[in-house]
Amino acid sequence: MKIILDMHVRLHYALISLAIIPGYSLAFEPLNTDDAGTVKKDGNQVEIYSFTTNQHDSNALNAVDLPIPDQDYVDTQYAHAYPATYTRGIGDNIEASIGSAVYAQPKGAFSPVSNSAVAMKWRFAESEDGDWALAIKPSVRLPSTPSQQVAGLGYSALNYGATLIGSVYWNAVEIHANVAYAKASYNTNYPAGQNTDPNRTNILFFSIAPVWTVSPGIRLALDMGLTTNPPTTEQYLSNYGLVAAIFSPIEAIDIGLSYMRSAANFGIVTSGSGANTTRTEVGVTWRF
Question: Which of these, 62, 113, 137, 282, is most buried using a 10 Å CB contact count?
Answer without folding.
Answer: 137
